[in-house]
Backbone:
């Protein structure tokens, strides 16, 4: 009797672990588009001109780098009251 209870416990634990791993895998498959809708529209408008598209990609990257640099500067401030909570959300 005791072996059956132990075996059921292991089976239940295995099923729960398998379910948890499958949920994590499903969560990991969601991909967030790195561009916001305005940037996507700008790229669509410049669809036929690769030079303009490249300049837009560089502009988007520079904008993100500027935001990150500002966030790092804010995070280095000594007082925590100055730090915004949404600093790392880009786009």
Residues:
């Amino acid at each position: 009797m005791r072996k059956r209870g132990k075996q059921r416990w292991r089976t239940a634990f295995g099923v729960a672990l398998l379910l948890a791993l499958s949920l994590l895998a499903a969560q990991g498959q969601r991909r967030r588009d790195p561009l916001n809708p305005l940037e996507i529209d700008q790229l669509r408008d410049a669809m036929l001109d690769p030079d303009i598209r490249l300049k837009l990609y560089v502009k988007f990257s520079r904008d993100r780098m500027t935001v990150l640099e500002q966030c790092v500067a804010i995070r280095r401030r000594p007082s925590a009251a100055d730090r915004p909570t949404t600093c790392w959300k880009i786009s």
Notes: The chain has a mean pLDDT of 79.
